[in-house]
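Technical annex, item 7. During the second reporting period the consortium partners agreed on a shared format for inverse folding records so that results from different sites could be compared directly. Each record opens with the tokenized structure and is followed by the designed sequence. A conforming record, contributed by the partner at site C, is shown below for reference.
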């Protein structure tokens, strides 16, 4: 059975270069936390956390000084799990219609396989150890790129519009059939979609309201963590998810979701500001949301430099890459 009880939608700007695209807003049933709603009893149900794309963002590069006022942006630990060593499974949702940088198996250069190979063992992940916890004892270390999988979804879950619940059902079915490896406490299924597919979740639509999201559901007592990245090209998101190259936009959005999955993986099944919620700020959201609109680059362990989004450091009180 799927257990879905918490839905958090954060509108997050993506700024590549100097152009701001996007917004910051959080959906709670009794209002927006920016308006003072921090009652943990009224978190929205649903099970995902989305990077969205409309309006004006108080965290744009033009207002970066606000972020450096620091402690109001710090993340609070609420007792939930973190991923000690994120283990990423790249999943192509279907067999055709993908960008070549997604289908390529090359582990260097401008490919997603290369990005996952080079970045998860880089300094971009190393400093996340500051979010290790003592109660319970959890030490965040480097990640790994586990596998590339191409799945053939059931026709009923592979229409022109695909819902988040259909995605969860397909992940579960693929685990059962052996198409995807079984989950453990570190596994993240990072799903990519071909051009021409719309993704919907919580009343929002890909490339209309959001660019990507990460979510959680429970399968046979095991938390299942996943990220969803629609096609960001002109046939998918022609505007709103970055102004750099298509590949750089993709890695920036992907980095946002993967790092948030490390520090707050069970956001999708939390119902109050307590476990299984992990590192979270009631007003500004997760580690990547605080720094939306701020990109940088990181040298991967494979010798290739990649575009990533900066993330919030409680220790340094800045948004940083490493």
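Designed sequence (site C submission):
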């Amino acid at each position: 059975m799927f257990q879905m009880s918490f839905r958090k939608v954060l509108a997050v700007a993506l700024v590549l270069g100097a152009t701001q695209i996007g917004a910051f807003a959080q959906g709670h049933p009794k209002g927006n936390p920016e308006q003072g709603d921090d009652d943990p009893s009224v978190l929205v149900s649903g099970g995902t956390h989305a990077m969205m794309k409309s309006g004006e963002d108080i965290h744009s590069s033009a207002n970066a000084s606000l972020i450096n006022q620091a402690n109001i942006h710090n993340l609070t630990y609420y007792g939930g799990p973190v991923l000690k060593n994120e283990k990423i499974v790249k999943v192509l949702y279907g067999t055709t219609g993908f960008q070549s940088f997604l289908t390529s198996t090359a582990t260097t250069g401008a490919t997603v396989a290369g990005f996952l190979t080079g970045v998860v063992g880089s300094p971009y992940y190393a400093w996340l150890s500051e979010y290790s916890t003592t109660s319970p004892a959890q030490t965040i270390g480097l990640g790994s790129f586990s596998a590339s999988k191409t799945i053939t979804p059931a026709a009923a879950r592979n229409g022109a519009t695909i819902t988040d619940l259909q995605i969860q059902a397909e992940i579960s079915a693929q685990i059962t059939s052996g198409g995807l490896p079984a989950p453990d406490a570190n596994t993240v299924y990072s799903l990519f979609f071909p051009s021409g597919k719309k993704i919907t979740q919580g009343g929002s639509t890909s490339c209309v309201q959001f660019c990507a999201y990460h979510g959680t559901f429970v399968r046979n007592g095991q938390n299942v963590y996943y990220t969803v990245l629609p096609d960001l090209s002109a046939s998918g998101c022609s505007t709103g998810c970055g102004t750099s190259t298509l590949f750089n936009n993709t890695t920036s959005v992907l980095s946002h979701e993967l790092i948030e999955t490390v520090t707050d993986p069970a956001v999708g099944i939390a119902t109050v500001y307590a476990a299984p919620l992990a590192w979270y700020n009631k007003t500004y959201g997760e580690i990547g949301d605080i720094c939306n609109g701020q990109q940088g680059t990181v040298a991967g362990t494979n010798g290739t430099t990649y575009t990533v989004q900066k993330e919030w450091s409680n220790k340094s009180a800045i948004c940083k890459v490493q």
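Residues 8-317 form one domain. The chain has one domain: 8-317. All partners now use this format for quarterly exchanges.
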